[in-house]
Give the backbone structure.
Amino acid sequence: MDLIKVAGEAMVEKREMPDFKAGDTVTVYYKIIEGNKERIQQYQGVVLQRKGSGISETFTVRKISNGVGVERIFPLYSPKIDKIQVDKRGVVRRARIFYLRNISGKKARIEEKKS
Amino acid sequence: MSEFRSDRWPKQTETMSGIIGKKIGMTSVFGADGKYIPCTIVQAGPCVVTQVKTKDTDGYEAVQLSFGERKEKHTSSAMAGHFKKSGASPKRKVVEFRHFPELPALGSEIKVDLFAEGDFVDVIGTSKGKGFQGVVRRHHFSGVGMQTHGQHNRLRAPGSLGASSDPSRVMKGMRMGGQMGARRAKIQNLQIVKVMPEQNVLIIKGAVPGHNGSYVIVEK
């Protein structure tokens, strides 16, 4: 019996999340609490990797903000995530696309998957 | 003098109950406010009361708990006889607890429902062994701090051990290299995140001494 899994699942609700992988462009709707007010912030970027398994799975989203690369790591089942919206499906040949950090401009484009 | 001592911390009159458990491993969960909490999963109990010591028989009050299955062929006959008295099967870990709020009956079981969510507990275990370590790792000495200016092989050396002809010896307790870890360690004031009575599991906020699978004592 895997007690870590059992205990974790008792604490964290595993919600239905859209299926996405590295190379996809997603928008994360993230709840931010300021004082006693709550608002939702959007963060759009390319998924670099999905890491871990079970309740402790995380994903990294990279975007270029004012010419500076910004990466944010979100726990997949965080209650602060309102929803995840998949904007584009990208075609990449590996599961972790860290090479994206070293390229910019036209080279950093990701081909969109034809459905 | 004796009166003065009994008032000092930890108070002898204070009640403290506990349970024996097994460290399963660590994970992270989300708290009520959505914060990520690192926590340790401990499989605690059910522990069997294998001996109750009273003032009349032993001169002091204590409860002996046992936990973890042990094969009969690996149990010495002395211990087998001891377990037979309480009607329990042979156990691996036997620990005595003093200052239980009330003495339980011989052969009864102590379970995780002893604890409640939000309780602060102390956890005792045997820390991970690190072997023979130098002063930089063991006592956080800063080392020499220079690679040039005549340093040849002294980068992580402790430096001076004291003055010269007065006192012409090294003071007791001087911090030096030696065995690190693999000793009894207690972490105080860890909060209980959740109690799961069906699985006999405690989720404790923070880290707990020892390897995964090692025995720990959780005290309230």
